[in-house]
């Protein structure tokens, strides 16, 4: 777990929230341009930073992982309702993890419908967290 303190904490929260928002906008832009793989990748990056921002804000720390499944498990320790949110969307979280992994290591193509589900998931996540702020 990583724990920035004091001023570093507020700066990290702000930085994570800003980057999550930028990644969200990039996911939308790439989707509109028809680049589904980059749209999926940026959606995953945004979700990851949103969850890390939430954890940092509520616990003062976040796990050094890129695994959305683990980030959701950690969030559920703070607020049990995250478990239901996660469980209801686990297949999309699987797709997002696939987007993260394959963007670096394997050739992979996403169907448009899968990326639409990822973007809808991201909008739900942002809505639960109050937009770009968590």
Automatic annotation (TrEMBL):
PROSITE patterns: HEPN. Residues 17-125 form the HEPN domain. InterPro entries: HEPN_dom. Pfam families: HEPN. This is HEPN domain-containing protein. It comes from Thermosulfurimonas dismutans. The lineage of its organism: Bacteria, Pseudomonadati, Thermodesulfobacteriota, Thermodesulfobacteria, Thermodesulfobacteriales.
């Amino acid at each position: 777990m990583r724990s920035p303190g004091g001023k570093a904490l507020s700066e990290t929260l702000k930085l994570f929230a800003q980057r999550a928002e930028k990644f969200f906008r990039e996911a939308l832009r790439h989707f509109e341009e028809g680049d589904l793989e980059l749209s999926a990748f940026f959606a995953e990056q945004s979700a990851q930073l949103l969850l890390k921002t939430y954890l940092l804000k509520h616990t003062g720390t976040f796990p050094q992982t890129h695994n959305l499944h683990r980030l959701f498990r950690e969030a559920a320790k703070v607020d049990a309702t995250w478990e239901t949110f996660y469980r209801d969307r686990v297949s999309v979280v699987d797709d997002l993890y696939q987007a993260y992994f394959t963007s670096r290591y394997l050739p992979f193509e996403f169907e448009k419908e899968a990326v639409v589900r990822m973007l809808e998931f991201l909008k739900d996540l942002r809505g639960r967290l109050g937009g770009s702020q968590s």
